[in-house]
């Protein structure tokens, strides 16, 4: 199907699709109950002067930040929230101690003692000043403040947890309308809180797990939902919504007939066997929506005046960045000696049906190979031991538990954590690997048959 767009039209389409893909909070699709819970908490803080604290817990990529952003975006259209609420964003990776967190808090709250981004006075003085500002007035006269603490578990490492203690204390005492929202991937985060901090926390916890997404509105399987998202994110607005682009992009509109042809083509991709198998493979490797959106954004970036349609090969090329096995990439970065030891471990595991091995067994297998191939330069045993330890540090092998801890390291037993397929894929992709080594990496049974 040929699509002939004007040059400026395809650039407009690319811009629109990338913004649609990379702004997931504009249409948050999952965790309906959890999202409503957060929405009600913030509404009560702003409208009724309530103080609350809550922890949002879930693995990375589960949608914690997107959920919060979608709630804040919805509330930003409410007049009382827009005019009164103050939002303070802190991140444990950035604000590594309470002084940095306090400085940025005073800046975001636009308090009087911030001049050119500098906070004057000692930490104790500024903390006292901040607390006085928060506690001044009453529920009706004080502006509600919403604290969003990303990487919350890192704030627990601060000295005496002073910032957390004071934020939770204000929220509990209801001296000012404050809502503290912590986001973390640590399931044991409550255990990280000091006793005095824990006693002031509301113990309200909201858990987000990808398998628990509320899809009651869309009774689809997880992968069918992914296919539907694929079509939604790559489709242009229908005739009724075309004017929405006009307001966003400098009075440029996508003509309805172009949008209709484009959407028909995207719909055909959803039923394309190659695309479906590609998306299914990616979904098996990584179910997170974040990486999926990044994949689509990279694919859409290939659009240009000279390339005006998303070809199947565009999706295949973009997927290579997101479907590669990290262990294979790490193997490709090893030295030739280390790769030889990996191959020795592979053969040892194949011959003895997955039984553990020690350094001496791998060393002897490698030396036997090196002696049989004049092109392979042998090295001293301490060098080989160092390469073996590097492989251990990369966690390609794992010490067998229950072994005698006093045994010499040459005789410590290890379990091989790589599959034969991973090793063979790395060998195939390894640039400059000697031919003898590549041939040696063949499955042991195939090598044996070749020798017959």
Automatic annotation (TrEMBL):
For whether the record's keyword set contains Nucleotide-binding, the answer is yes
User: What does the subunit section of this Swiss-Prot or TrEMBL entry state?
Assistant: Component of ORC, a complex composed of at least 6 subunits: ORC1, ORC2, ORC3, ORC4, ORC5 and ORC6. ORC is regulated in a cell-cycle dependent manner. It is sequentially assembled at the exit from anaphase of mitosis and disassembled as cells enter S phase. Interacts with DBF4. Interacts with POLQ.
Cited function: Component of the origin recognition complex (ORC) that binds origins of replication.
Q: Which residues form the AAA+ ATPase domain?
A: 50-211
GO biological process, alphabetically ordered: DNA replication initiation
The source's domain of life comes to Eukaryota
**Which GO CC terms are listed, alphabetically?**
cytoplasm; nuclear origin of replication recognition complex
Q: Write down what this protein is called.
A: Origin recognition complex subunit 4
- UniProt subcellular location: Nucleus
Could you state a single Gene Ontology molecular function term? Answer: DNA replication origin binding
Q: Which InterPro entries match?
A: AAA+_ATPase, ATPase_AAA_core, ORC4, ORC4_C, P-loop_NTPase
Which species does this protein come from?
Apis cerana cerana (Oriental honeybee)
UniProt entry keywords in alphabetical sequence: ATP-binding, DNA replication, DNA-binding, Nucleotide-binding, Nucleus
Q: Which PANTHER family match?
A: ORIGIN RECOGNITION COMPLEX SUBUNIT 4
Broad class of where this protein is predominantly found: nucleus
Protein family according to the UniProt entry: Belongs to the ORC4 family.
Q: Name one Pfam family in it.
A: ORC4_C
């Amino acid at each position: 199907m040929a699509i002939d767009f004007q040059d400026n039209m395809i650039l407009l389409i690319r811009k629109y699709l990338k913004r649609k893909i990379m702004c997931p909070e504009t249409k948050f699709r999952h965790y309906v109950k959890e999202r409503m819970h957060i929405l009600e908490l913030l509404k009560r803080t702003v409208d009724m002067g309530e103080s609350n604290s809550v922890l949002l817990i879930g693995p990375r990529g589960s949608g914690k930040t997107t959920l919060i952003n979608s709630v804040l975006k919805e509330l930003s259209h409410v007049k009382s929230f827009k005019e009164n609420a103050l939002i303070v964003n802190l991140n444990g990776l950035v604000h590594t101690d309470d002084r940095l967190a306090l400085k940025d808090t005073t800046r975001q709250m636009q308090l009087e003692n911030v001049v050119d981004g500098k906070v004057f006075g000692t930490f104790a003085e500024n903390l006292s000043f901040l607390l006085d500002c928060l506690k001044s007035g009453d529920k009706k006269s004080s502006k509600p403040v919403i604290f969003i603490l990303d990487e919350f578990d890192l704030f627990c490492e601060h000295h005496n947890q002073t910032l957390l203690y004071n934020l939770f204390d204000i929220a509990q005492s209801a001296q000012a309308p404050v809502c503290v929202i912590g986001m973390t991937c640590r399931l044991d985060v409550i255990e990280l809180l000091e006793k005095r901090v824990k006693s002031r926390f509301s113990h309200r916890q909201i858990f987000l797990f990808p398998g628990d997404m509320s899809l009651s509105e869309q009774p689809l399987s997880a992968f069918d939902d992914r296919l539907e998202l694929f079509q939604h994110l790559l489709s242009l607005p229908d005739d009724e919504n075309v004017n929405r682009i006009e307001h966003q992009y400098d009075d440029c509109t996508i003509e309805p007939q172009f949008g209709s042809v484009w959407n028909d083509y995207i719909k055909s991709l959803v039923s394309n066997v190659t695309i479906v198998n590609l998306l299914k493979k990616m979904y098996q490797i990584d179910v997170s929506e974040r990486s999926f959106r990044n994949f689509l954004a990279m694919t859409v970036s290939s659009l240009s005046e000279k390339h005006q349609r998303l070809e199947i090969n565009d999706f295949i090329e973009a997927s290579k960045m997101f479907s590669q096995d990290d262990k294979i990439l790490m193997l490709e970065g090893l030295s030739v000696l280390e790769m030889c030891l990996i191959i020795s471990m592979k053969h040892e595991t194949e011959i003895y049906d997955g039984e553990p091995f020690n350094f001496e067994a791998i060393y002897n297998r490698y030396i036997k190979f090196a002696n049989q191939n004049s092109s392979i330069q042998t090295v001293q045993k301490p060098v080989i031991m160092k390469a073996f330890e590097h492989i251990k540090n990369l966690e390609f092998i794992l010490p067998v538990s229950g072994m005698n801890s006093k045994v010499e390291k040459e005789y410590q037993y290890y379990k091989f954590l790589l599959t034969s397929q991973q090793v063979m894929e790395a060998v195939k992709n390894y640039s400059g690997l000697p031919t003898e080594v590549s041939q040696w990496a063949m499955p042991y049974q195939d090598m044996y048959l070749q020798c017959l």
